[in-house]
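ugh ok fine here u go
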Amino acid sequence: MRNDFSFSEFYARRVKRIFPALCAVLLISYAIGWFVLLPDEFKQLGKHMAASAGFVENFVLLREASYFDSASELKPLMHIWSLGIEEQYYLVYPVTVWLAYRAGGSVLSIIIVLAIISFGLNVGGIENAATKTFFLPQTRLWELLVGGILAYLQLFKKTGGVTSLRNLVVNSPQSSKLPSRLLGATYVHNALAWIGLLLLLIAVLFLDRDKPFPGWWALVPVSSACLLILSGSNAWLNRRVLASRLMVFIGIISYPLYLWHWPLLSFARISEGEILSSKIRVAIVAASVLLAWVTYLLIERPIRFGRNVWPKTMGSITLLAIIGYLGYNAFERDGLGFRMKDRGDYVSYFENSTPTLKYMMANGIWQKDRVECNFLDAERWRNGESDPPPRETIDKSCYTPTTSRAILIWGDSHAAHLSHGLVTVLPKEISVLQVTTSGCAPQIVETVDPNFDACQKSNAFALQLIKKQVPETVVMAQASGHDQVNNVEQIAARLKSLGVRKILFLGPVPQWEPYLYKLIAKKYWIFTPTRIATNLKAEVFSADKILREKFAARNSNLEYVSLINFFCNEQGCMTYIGDDKRDGLLTYDHGHLTPVGSIFLATKLLAPLILKING
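structure:
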């Protein structure tokens, strides 16, 4: 140990370790994207390239997180968010430790306090701001600070972490009750290693997307890593298993393997347009390992080790800056649509990312879907707030009938897209009331509390409106979770007791993966059929079948309306209406109806049902 520290040498080592392999992956991703990505996809890739080069991908993903966001598997560089947090940590941590040391304070105490504060922010935010808690550095730094605590104990405490732990057990009053062999150093090392492995297995087996993460659950993998490191080379598990040639090889290529695996999976998913088969996944894993090994041999090892430190460092920084500019240029120039002009113009028409919401604004979707009837503060969400507080109330026109007869549209944005068609088609003597809040399926909420979130507030308001106005018909719709996130029969019974004559409960609309307009541009550009049977989400059809069977032949005020039966037949599901595959397209994203689709549905199905029910 040299007993000195140089910031310039430290950051030079970080640059040589991180930048070269990252540059290779970003450049190859750019090259692949040039040939296979549509303009809006290439534009998004460019944005993520620039963010990855600047190590701010976590902030970009946080800003993108919304109801209309693309699926994570369609973002080839999404995984770089964790590298961004790591580099943000390394910008702050060394300076903090150095300042604490210069001030004569207890470095270990300061690290521990910072870790506790970060962990507290993580636990406190996971319930109400899960997305922010996942991506923001202040709620994730504790995971890295725990490593800092471990390193400090190992380097600067004479007894070391494990010995200190063993002494604590030996000197405790309860130790006299334990067999002497349990207090031996070898036993303690082995016990820590096996407990660490057990925690790792728990994390692998029980952590899934339904668990709130990081939160308390993050303690499991972090503790596992700590215990395995603490147990050291004296533990049999580490000496015989983790130090084996295979494990050492995986460790050596772990960084480039981390960089390569996700872009390969994502590009394959984008190209296939559907869930990848097991054979393709296995092939991608093998390719990732091969590319990681080649990257380590030809790029990482020659630049990381050896002489010419500063030319290698400055060269890596310069190259990453150039790559960042390439990405930014692709983003600013709308995905360089000249690569595929005709299809590029088609896809660009449906581009709908925040904050511009180009398609929605150009086609008046907010006005036609009546955003004023949404308790979500859409403007604040559009300007970057992923979880804005709910609006105090909705516009008076949403709940005030202008005629003696009225119907109510109730639900989420998949209810809101019905509005334009029903308002256009229904006779003017029927007022169309509306309470539709994004992401909020209809549910029974008993009381109104000012601290309720947008969904609770919206549903409580809808029930109060029904009680006051008693609309003749209530049209309920939602994007997913039909009769799962809510109890439709229970809702129907409540509305019947309030005097509602009929409830139309709409099932899911057909959904394609990728979005319908992208599917047409990728697979059906030369000849675009009016019905397509490929790339349809199977879970939508499964849900519709269950709902049809459950609600068949009911003699109550509840009628299930299958939109799958309406839009689909044995040839496939409708793709566009009329003669224009752009202006007549049925859906503009994962399942929201276009204005043309909304009018078609209202004309052919919903309005006749409502008029029949109401005589």
